Amino acid sequence: MNEQTQNAVFAYLIDEIAACQRRQKELLADNRDDEAKFEKIRTNVFDIFKTVLSVAISTVKSGSSAEIKDFFLQKTEQIPANWKIAYAKAAEHGDVEKMHYESIKLEAIAEIRETFETIWGDK
């Protein structure tokens, strides 16, 4: 298992969490509460998947890079499935605010998955 690759993914997630929190504080200071809430949602998604990566690494006893990658990628499909359902229900009811919240989550996970695959590669 390439610990350097794991650390690179963790660093990416931690950096994104910090950036979202920084933007959230700046927006709150400018009394832009709605936009700050959007950054809070992004922060939560990045934090969830930082935890998922930790669980993947500790759960896969063999330390197999391929198994860790599979575990993580499976969760990037499984967890957002509920967000997709929530988005569809919000669309049915014309709840634009809820649709926007769910789309922020879905955009964040797409970004996480793409960056994870770039960093992890075929390792």
Supply database-style keywords.
123 residues, mainly alpha, 4 helices, flat
Detail the topology: elements first, then pairings.
Layout: H1 3-29, H2 33-59, H3 65-92, H4 96-120
Describe the model.
The protein contains four helices and no strands. It is mainly alpha-helical and 123 residues long. It has one domain (3-120). α1 (3-29) runs antiparallel to α4 (96-120) and α3 packs antiparallel against α4 (96-120). The mean pLDDT is 95.
> Overall pLDDT, averaged?
95
Q: Please compute the radius of gyration using only Cα atoms.
A: 16 Å
- Give the ordered list of helices and strands: HHHH
The beta-strand count equals: 0
Largest sheet: none
Number of helices, counting only DSSP H or I runs of 4 residues or more: 4
Care to give the gist of this entry?
Helix content is 87%, strand content 0%. It is mainly α.
